Amino acid sequence: MISEVDFPLVKIGPASMLKTLVVGAGLSGLMIALGLQDSRDVAVVDKARGVGGRLATRRTDNAKFDHGAQFYKLKPPLREMHERWLERQLVKLWFTENQEQHFYAVGGMTTLTKDLAQDTSVIVNERAVGLERKNQKWVVTFDSARIEKVDEVIFTCPIPQTLEIFKMSSLAYPAQLSEVVYSKALVLLIEDSPTPFRFQAHGYVEPQNSSIFSVADQQEKGVSEVNAITVTLNAEASDQHFDSPDEDVIRQATGELQKLYPNFEPGITQLKKWRYCQVQKSFGELFAQVSDGLYLAGDGFGGASLNGAARSADALSKHLAHLNAHPQFIDVITKGKKKWPTPLS
Ligand SMILES: Cc1cc2nc3c(=O)[nH]c(=O)nc-3n(C[C@H](O)[C@H](O)[C@H](O)COP(=O)(O)OP(=O)(O)OC[C@H]3O[C@@H](n4cnc5c(N)ncnc54)[C@H](O)[C@@H]3O)c2cc1C
């Protein structure tokens, strides 16, 4: 039975405040929520058990692994967040290469989004499955039978996941959104190696001419107290073996690793699969407005990195804050020129 829940997480703002639901509590969703909270009643939902999305950290009995993003490069889109994390002692410089500083999160990359989530209303374990326009509101349905009625919805999921919801809801969208492409990633988490092994001075290496894209030593980085290695296969190998049995992928990948590093002895190994890893062909604009009060943002728009996610989040937050400050502009967008004159799929 479908039950109706009346946006319980959101603080009660002035009656005139727009209610905004952000779908996806990855970096972009949380940054958007923070950017909008002065002007809107905003909440974030995520289908996962916790926040972070592709900023993912897994703990086993002894070890800790970042198994999504390993680091961020300090570029302008992330500077403000970086200052915040630095002040809270959440991040440290890992290494500098080609004059670019690479920062990591001391407690694992997911702690960065946990930090942002402290200042926002977030609900986890809720998967958005449907969307409908009714009486000037967006009605969002969840697989738990939860329903939210809001003025604005902002999707920050990998774009194909958002489009699945649009399709299930028979909602038209610009055909260009279907052209955005992400690589897949197969990621090995290796712990308890019998003999400690040093891959490189700082513990991060991208081997040349190999199906292995990167090797990240979590102990050397400072995330794990015991030996823990994250090995990411390149896009081609990940795509080729994505549906192969885990044991086959692990056997082949550890074989390849030992060819590169004959003295490395893999210990207990698990496999993590990312269907949407890094955007290879992005949308070309920093966010998309699909309809009145319906937006998409995230790294599919800003580019394949934390900086890309932040760039998109920042652009959409500023755009919406501007609309708030100049409501007459909303009329131009919603009644006047259509942002998407192209055929809808
Ligand atoms: C293996 C790997 C290695 C990487 N390495 C790096 C790196 O070293 N440096 C770097 O800068 N970048 C790296 N990246 C890329 C970086 O992690 C991403 O670009 C960035 O985290 C994307 O953030 P986002 O908020 O746009 O999307 P996401 O983090 O994907 O957030 C989207 C959220 O939406 C949620 N969601 C999806 N569907 C639904 C639904 N129906 N209902 C509710 N919630 C939903 C998801 O659970 C997820 O939490 C890597 C990515 C991967 C996978």
- Corresponding CATH superfamily of the largest domain: FAD/NAD(P)-binding domain
Task: Give the helix/strand class.
Answer: alpha+beta
Computed Rg = 21 Å
Q: Per CATH, which architecture of the largest domain?
A: 3-Layer(bba) Sandwich
CATH class of the largest domain: Alpha Beta
Relative strand content: 25-35%
Unreliable segments (pLDDT under 50, ≥5 consecutive)?
Answer: 1-13, 328-345
How many strands appear in the DSSP assignment? 21
Count of structural domains? 2
Strand order of the largest sheet: 8-2-1-12-21-20
Considering DSSP H and I runs of 4 or more, what fraction of the residues is helical? 25-40%
Q: What do the pLDDT scores average to?
A: 90
What is the tally of helical segments?
A: 10
Please tell me what the overall shape is.
Answer: globular
At the fold tier of CATH, the topology name of the largest domain is: FAD/NAD(P)-binding domain
Please tell me about this protein's structure:
By secondary structure, this protein is an alpha+beta fold. The protein contains ten helices and 21 strands. It folds into two domains: 2-53 and 113-180 and 282-335, FAD/NAD(P)-binding domain (3-Layer(bba) Sandwich); 196-280, Alpha-Beta Complex (Polyamine Oxidase, Chain A, domain 2). A hairpin with a 2-residue loop joins strand 6 (91-97) and strand 7 (100-105). Helix 1 (27-36) packs parallel to helix 3 (110-117) and helix 1 (27-36) runs parallel beside helix 9 (306-325). The longest helix has 20 residues, at 306-325. The chain starts with 17 loop residues before the first strand and ends in a 10-residue tail after the last helix. Residues 1-13 and 328-345 have low confidence and may be disordered. Flavin-adenine dinucleotide is lined by residues 23-29, 45-48, 53-55, 68-72, 127-128, 156-158, 161, 165, 185, 187, 232, 274, 277-278, 298-299, 304-306, 308-309. Residues 23-29, 45-48, 53-55, 68-72, 127-128, 156-158, 161, 165, 185, 187, 232, 274, 277-278, 298-299, 304-306, 308-309 line the site of flavin-adenine dinucleotide.
